[in-house]
Design goal:
By secondary structure, the chain is of the alpha/beta class. Helix content is about 45%, strand content about 15%. Strands 1-11-8-7-5-6 form a six-stranded parallel beta sheet. Helix 1 packs parallel to helix 10, helix 2 packs across helix 10 and helix 6 packs across helix 7. The longest helix is centred in the last third of the chain and has 24 residues. About 40% of the residues are buried. The mean pLDDT is about 95. Pfam families: THF_DHG_CYH, THF_DHG_CYH_C. It comes from Virgibacillus salinus.
Length: about 290
């Protein structure tokens, strides 16, 4: 057997076309969804991510702007800017591009953003709502992964999902979303012994470890669905994931590629959250 490739880029394009129609309808009602991104410093990777978000916003008709602040910006100055945006009724979504300089406390920044404008889905209130199964802004990468699985009719309920990685951005929340869908969830991480004992029993395997080709054929259960969140740049400049794609391809039933897999879906979910925020804030103002 060989796997069906879960084409995140194609799915993202389809979803953005649907969003464009929704944004057009909202504009006809006088509501223009607006996303503001704050970029601290001049990290090339962060700049690239921000440019990608701005481009994708434009493709769906969402208004967006980028506030660039110097690397020496103090935490107090950043928190003041966030408060200004919280109070600005024309701004529906606020995103502070991570990582931040070491002198700024990331958690202070996340908690300063109004939960109603937290389109990254990182605020403790929104995380709490996600854990308890309430409607909220879902973290973008985990939400994108769940959408990919559902779009390809991968059965989640009753299945054993194994998550490799326990970050607050991907690992922990994606496990919670799968639990909410009635999967049985196991978390693995850097301290897990005999990793293969867990991965080889997974019906759904989500890999987010940040090491190229760390997961190989022997780690995979026959017929598993494999989502590769990793993105690693090799010495020759090419990109690869955390999964040895060619080796696993012959054994899995579904697999996401790198690039053109999870990445495009992450940005698409951000846009979806921005539209949701605009509609929610508009409703609260009536």
């Amino acid at each position: 057997m060989s796997a069906d490739i879960i084409k995140g880029k194609e799915l993202a394009h389809k979803l953005k076309e649907e969003m464009s129609k929704e944004v057009l309808f909202l504009k006809e009602q006088g509501l223009v969804p607006h996303l503001t991104v704050i970029l601290i410093g001049d990290n090339p990777a962060s700049k690239s991510y921000v440019n990608g978000k701005k481009k994708a916003s434009g493709e769906t008709g969402i208004s967006s702007d980028v506030i660039e602040m110097g690397v020496s910006t103090s935490e107090k100055e950043l928190l003041k800017k966030i408060q200004e945006l919280n109070n600005d009724q024309s701004v529906h979504g606020i995103l502070v591009q991570l990582p931040l300089p070491k002198h700024i406390d990331e958690q202070h920044v996340i908690e300063a953003i109004s939960p109603a404008k937290d389109v990254d889905g990182f605020h403790p209130i929104n995380i709490g709502r996600m854990i308890t199964g309430k409607d909220t802004f879902l973290p973008c990468t985990p939400s994108g992964i769940l959408t990919m699985l559902k779009s390809y009719d991968v059965t989640i309920e009753g299945k054993h999902a194994v998550i490799i990685g326990r970050s607050n951005i991907v690992g922990k929340p994606v496990g919670q979303l799968l639990l909410n869908e009635n999967a049985t969830v196991t978390y693995c991480h850097s301290k897990t012994t005999n990793l293969i004992d867990f991965t080889s029993k997974a019906d759904i395997l989500i890999v987010a470890v940040g090491r190229p080709n760390a997961i190989r054929e022997e780690h995979i259960k026959e017929g598993a669905a494999v989502i590769d969140v990793g993105i690693n740049r090799l010495e020759d400049g090419s990109l690869t994931g955390d999964v040895d794609f060619d080796a696993v391809f012959e054994k899995a039933s579904y697999i996401s590629p790198v690039p053109r897999g999870v990445g495009p879906m992450t940005i698409t979910m951000l846009l979806q959250n921005t539209i949701k925020a605009a509609k929610g804030l508009s409703k609260s103002e009536r």
